[in-house]
Structure formats: structure tokens, C-alpha cells
Amino acid sequence: MRKPSFESVILKYSDMSGKYNSIDMDASGLQMILSIAELDPTILTGLIDSVLENTPDLIQHLSDGIEQKNVTQIKISSHSLKSSFNLIGATTIADTCQAIETISQEGKMTGVVDMFSHVQDLYKELVSDLHLWKADIEAEQ
User: Fold this and answer.
1) What is the pTM of this model?
2) Span 6-140: which CATH code?
3) Which ranges constitute the DSSP H helices of 69-111?
4) CB 141: neighbour CB atoms within 10 A?
5) Containing H/E element for 29?
6) Dist CA 134 CA 130 (whole Å)
7) Predicted local distance difference test score (pLDDT) of residue 1
8) Phi-psi region of 133 (alpha: psi -120 to 50; beta: other; left: phi over 0)
9) Number of C-alpha atoms within 13 angstroms, CB side, residue 3?
10) Which residues, in sequence order, are CB contacts of 108 under 8 Å at separation 6+?
11) Coil, strand, or helix at residue 39?
12) Cα angle vertex 47, ends 137, 55, to 5°?
């Protein structure tokens, strides 16, 4: 299988906002992922699979932390989620997780429940977009 040129992949995925609503990655973010993946699409699909597989447990862990008012658990879970979402270019949801993490680092809970609800809504959309993105990548192989 011939690997696509770096430029063609950047052009294809650098403006995904019209097709993948919850993935708001800019070209520099995509360049980073593709550089790491060395233009191997299976790396991208593996990354997507990893996020789809691991995120539900992290979201549940965050939910449990919020329910128990355990700011340490909230901080750890929101940090892990933030990192995962940033890695795939879902910066809006990552930024919300960052806000939750920041509040929990201060030992507070103010607004966390509403932000978590927003994370859950964004995640539902993200799951759909990730499946679509993965199918598009696999169709190109």
C-alpha cells in the first residue's frame, strides 16, 4: 500500500469542521499526529479505537468522583480525559475537561456538574464523529 503524501493528508483533514463537528483540530495539531504516525493510517485508527475503548471508563470515573465530591478523583479523571481529547483534536471537550481539572485543583466543585453534563453531551457527538472519521480513514486504505 502506498502511503499518501503528507501534504495530501493535511489538506484532507486540516479542515474537518464541516464533516466532523466535534473534532476541531487545526492543521498544526493534525501535523503532530501524522508526524508521530509517520503517515500510517493504522496509527490513527488505533488512536481512535483507544479513545473509544477507554473514554467511557474515564467518564464514569469522573461521574463517580463528582457524585462523591472527591476532588482528587475529579482532578485525575478530568486530566486524563483532557489529554485523550486533545490528542485526537477534540479541543472543545478537552477545554471543558481542563476547566473541570482547574476547579478541582482549587478544591472546589463550583460549576463542575454543569460542565460535566456538557462533556457528556459533547462526547456523544464525538463518538459518532470518531466512527465516521475511522470509516473514512479505512476506506482510503
Assistant:
1) 0.79
2) 1.20.120.160
3) 71-87, 91-105
4) 9
5) helix 27-37
6) 6
7) 47
8) alpha
9) 12
10) 71
11) coil
12) 120
- What's the sign of the alpha-carbon dihedral 28, 99, 78, 112? negative
What ranges do the domains of the chain cover?
A: 6-140
Dihedral of CA 130/131/137/141: which sign?
positive
Can you give the length of the chain in residues?
141
**Cell 495530501 found at:** 8
Q: How far apart are CA 108 and CA 90, in angstroms?
A: 25
pLDDT in tens, 93-140: 999 999 999 999 999 999 999 999 999 999 998 898 888 878 877 776
User: Burial, 93: exposed, middle or buried (Cβ in 10 Å; 0-12, 13-18, 19+)?
Assistant: buried
Q: Which three cell numbers stand for residue 21?
A: 463537528
Amino acid present at 104? S
